[in-house]
Amino acid sequence: MQGFGEILALAFDLVLSGDGDLAEIVWLSLRVSISATLLACLIGLPLGAVLAIARFPGRNAAIVLVNALMGLPPVVVGLLVYLHLSRAGPLGFLGLLYTPTAMIIAQTILIAPIVAALSRQVLEELHAEYAETFRSLALSGRQTLAALLWDGRFALVTVALAGFGRAVAEVGAVMIVGGNIDHATRVMTTAIALETSRGNLALAMALGVILMMLALGVNAAVHSLRLTATRWSHA
């Protein structure tokens, strides 16, 4: 069996050589995760804004529900999406099972509650801070929301990056609805699991290195945005 150092060296060779299979897997992972993140933001940001600003019966229950959905088990989400998209399911006629679209749907369901809950917290804190100012200016609800979104833009981008980080690391749900099909639905996390079981540790390690680099990049971006937001707040 190859030693760790040899496997790591082979992994870096694959990364630096631009291996075709590796590039295909990474590109599909990014396409699926970025698409899911954008959809989750389209759903989660408005929902978070409504929960942060609006006052209506059942608001507290809605907040509790959204917070609880942050902990959705990925395999359960994958199973539910599978049942809906399978031939016997209500959406089976669409033929989406074992396609990247099914994976995007599963990831969107997983990270939309995260985006909604975190954006609600950000906007609610800003609303509490500026409530008197908004009242004195007699701003409408739409103007208030626009002001909050602008002031909290750096924090909201951080929320989106957190959602992307969660999406790109997902394995359970995308394995169930995507099937881990070579050249079709194989992403980094599912490929790592498969190649490890096959004993192809160099490719698994190469994918793991890229996944770690993405995680570091996302965290660096979050840290940079926080520093930028701090500078703007003290400007």
Automatic annotation (TrEMBL):
Share an example GO biological-process annotation for this protein: transmembrane transport
Q: Provide the ABC transmembrane type-1 domain boundaries.
A: 26-222
Its placement in the membrane is given as:
Multi-pass membrane protein
Segments spanning the bilayer are: 33-54, 61-85, 97-118, 154-181, 201-222
What do the Gene Ontology cellular component annotations say? Answer: plasma membrane
Instruction: Tell me if Membrane is a UniProt keyword of this record.
Output: yes
Q: Which CDD domains match?
A: TM_PBP2
Its main localization is membrane
Keywords, comma-separated and alphabetical: Membrane, Transmembrane, Transmembrane helix, Transport
Where's it found, cell-wise?
A: Cell membrane
SUPFAM superfamilies, sorted: MetI-like
Matching entries from PANTHER family are given as: PERMEASE COMPONENT OF TUNGSTATE ABC TRANSPORTER (PTHR43632)
Family, similarity comment: Belongs to the binding-protein-dependent transport system permease family.
Q: What is this protein called?
A: ABC transporter permease subunit
